[in-house]
Design goal:
The protein is of the alpha+beta class. The chain contains eleven helices and twelve strands.
């Protein structure tokens, strides 16, 4: 997906990582990466707007690196860096397990982003922090729901009301920001029941598919189709075979695009309600 500056999300993250590496070689021991910089280091999802700031001349430029200190230490002031002064106890600082860089813990990172992110994006960030492994090679969750709750309770940090509103909606089985947005569209906008996330479908006790958002009782599933599904021929062919298999097993799969969630949300909500209602009637008949 391209941002309003023409760069992809991967390019934006790569830019942050490059600048983090450049600053880290001269960063004093009292400083640590936080906010957007920490999110990128934890490979946690952010909306495209998080990577840019609007300059005085009306153009968009890269957001400065977010570098924090614990008071009473003095926040850094230099080109390309935005210093953040953090009250004692408001942020746990840890070493990144791969890079060894100092940064806020996943739970603290989520809590600090409460003052900057809209509700859905704050929930999506929380989902990423607590995501449980769903495949044998998946890494462990970065944080727990209890850790997020503890991060809220440390003091009257900015964004507390938004964090408290977001926490009850965070789930451990969402695999992407768009999957989270899809779930919220179904439950909060369409007012459908709470679905199962990445629901496993079995054949002969073997998992053959994980359905992004599912209503297993009536066998209705919603699958988010990212751009890679349309541009990768091998992935496209795999998707077709997968949907045919699920149809043979009695599943009705509703395929959802970015346009459905951003531009045609009302129409998508009507379609989702109709699909679930029809399947409920069929199951109860």
């Amino acid at each position: 997906m391209r941002t309003h500056t023409g760069r992809s999300g991967d390019e934006c993250e790569a830019s942050v990582l490059r600048r983090v590496g450049e600053y880290a070689v001269r960063m004093p021991s009292t400083q640590f990466f936080c906010l957007v910089s920490a999110c990128v280091l934890w490979n946690a999802p952010l909306p495209p707007s998080a990577f840019f700031t609007l300059a005085d001349d009306g153009t968009w430029k890269d957001r400065p690196l977010d570098v924090g200190v614990t008071l009473p230490a003095r926040a850094p002031r230099c080109d390309g860096v935005r210093g953040r002064s953090v009250n004692p106890g408001w942020a746990d600082v840890v070493e990144h397990p791969l890079s060894g860089l100092p940064l806020t813990s996943p739970a603290s990172t989520w809590a600090m982003m409460g003052q900057f992110l809209a509700d859905d994006d704050l929930i999506a960030l929380g989902d990423a922090m607590v995501r449980e492994p769903m495949h044998p090679d998946d890494p462990p969750a970065l944080a727990s729901l209890a850790a997020l709750d503890t991060a809220i309770a440390v003091g009257r940090r900015p964004g507390i009301p938004r964090l408290r509103e977001a926490l009850p909606f965070i789930r451990t089985r969402s695999r992407s920001r768009q999957e989270t947005r899809l779930r919220l569209a179904l439950t909060r906008d369409a007012r459908l029941p709470e679905p199962s996330l990445n629901w496993p479908v079995y054949i002969d006790e073997v998992v053959v598919a994980l359905i992004d958002v599912a209503y297993p009782r009536v066998r209705v599933g919603f699958e988010y189709e990212g751009e890679q599904h349309l541009t990768d021929a091998a992935q496209w062919a795999k998707d077709i075979r997968r949907y045919e298999m699920l149809a043979d097993l009695g599943w009705r799969i509703i395929r959802v695009t970015k346009s459905d969630l951003d531009l045609e949300r009302t129409a998508f909500i009507r379609r989702a309600r109709a699909a679930v209602a029809a399947s409920v009637r069929a199951a109860d008949a």
